[in-house]
Amino acid sequence: MLDVHPPHKRMREVGEYFVHLVVITIGLLIATQIESCVEWRAHVRLADEARVALHKEIAANLKALRDAEPGLKQWQAQVKDNIADMQRVLDHPNDPAAQPHRFHTGCGGISLDNTAWQTAQSTGALDYMPYKEASAYVNIYTAQKAFLKSQNQPCADAAAISGILAQYPLDAKGARFSREEAAALANNFGRMQFHLELGAVLFDENIELNAAFLEGREPRKDFSGSLN
């Protein structure tokens, strides 16, 4: 807080009054500029610290995504095989050789961190960054949130499939799927396949946004080609 004190002696002439006024004005301006400079430096430091933390977090998330990519492709392939197995049962309901004896019904997910992002928001660090840079962070973490949410649906599909399979002892001798059971499983595996494909589009978008940011380039915009 700035303090302004009255003169220590009585001013007898108008000139003395104006000199004193000018001195006070100059002092106030200098003090205000110093205070503004200190605040500006604090804001710059806050933005720099957030920038470093976000860069590390985005790089770590990109590595986690790329490490998980083979597992996602394997999961999609397994679901495709399960659908083909059920289709054989539907095509040949009375053929014991058409009955499957193994299923891949697992459910997995990828964990991505957003601690640096939440901290940057809570401290207001984004307010002291250039608009383009702040927008890049918003796009990255908005896409990340959408992808993480998309992982819930395939797990719900897996739960429905497990419920059906619980009624069917795969290891029991002579056990067979009925047409109704095969149709229900084919339907749920088909739903899972669709949800995995949608998730794969968001997965590819996250990789591209994170990689483009770290490489200092503009990300490509169209990810619809990933959905087939």
Task: Describe the model.
By secondary structure, the protein is an all-alpha fold. It has one domain. It has 5 helices and no strands. Helix 1 packs antiparallel against helix 5 (179-215) and helix 4 packs antiparallel against helix 5. The radius of gyration is 32 Å and the shape is rod-shaped.
Brief rundown of the structure:
This protein is mainly alpha-helical and 228 residues long. The protein has helices at residues 14-91, 115-123, 131-150, 152-165, 179-215.
State the total count of DSSP E strands: 0
Total individual domains: 1
Distance between the termini: 64 Å
> What is the mean predicted local confidence, pLDDT?
83
Enumerate the spans where pLDDT stays under 50 for 5 or more consecutive residues. none
Write the layout of secondary structure elements.
Elements: H1 14-91, H2 115-123, H3 131-150, H4 152-165, H5 179-215
Helix pairs in contact: 1-2, 1-5, 3-5, 4-5
Keywords:
228 residues; mainly alpha; 69% helix; 0% strand; rod-shaped
